[in-house]
Design goal:
mainly beta, 2 helices
């Protein structure tokens, strides 16, 4: 599943942080909605139709690459987790994107909903496993053109033991069909 692997364990909202950079889209279409796609430690994805049109082929496997652009976390947290360092790149191969209509699932169709795709734009949100008391929430907004999807991704970290207790990592994500 795509969202699960978008730079896990790297971010939490900081009210003083600037809004994430989001690729411009046709404002008249109403899609995609503006991030964030969560409320606190819970995802709040838009409604999807499992019988809706599948306008982009997401079958097969994908290589996912996530680059950290910036973050708002404590400097000690940045030293402890290299994924928080600007310029860090994490690449994962053989990623699948299970979907039914407009609905994108974690592991299998009908399982945990982690994304919605309409037209060629997919938004994702997934609450990751708590590690050392920290809850990561990973989001993305990916625009597909042919066999490549690109866009911003964010990891929000909640309950970090060092202030700020909530921070975030701002990333760029690329999915390439294998």
């Amino acid at each position: 599943m795509v969202a699960a692997d978008l730079s896990t364990d790297v971010g939490t909202p900081n009210p003083e942080a600037s809004a994430p950079d989001v690729a411009s889209v046709d404002a008249g279409s109403g899609w995609p909605p503006a991030p964030p796609y969560h409320t606190g430690k819970q995802c709040s994805l838009p409604t999807c139709d499992p019988s809706g049109p599948e306008t982009i082929d997401l079958s097969g496997t994908w290589t996912q690459s996530v680059t950290t652009n910036s973050q708002t976390c404590n400097s000690l947290a940045r030293v402890m987790d290299p994924r928080l360092q600007p310029g860090h790149v994490e690449t994962l191969k053989n990623q699948s994107i299970p979907r039914a209509g407009e609905c994108v699932y974690k592991e299998k169709v009908g399982g945990t909903l982690v994304g919605v795709i309409k037209g060629n734009i997919m938004v994702t949100c997934e609450v990751m496993a708590v590690t050392s008391g920290v809850t990561p929430v990973v989001e993305s907004q990916i625009t597909f053109t042919g066999g490549v999807g690109t866009g911003p991704a964010w990891t929000y970290l909640f309950d970090v033991p060092l202030p700020p207790t909530n921070c975030q990592a701002n990333c760029s994500a690329t999915l390439t069909k294998e």
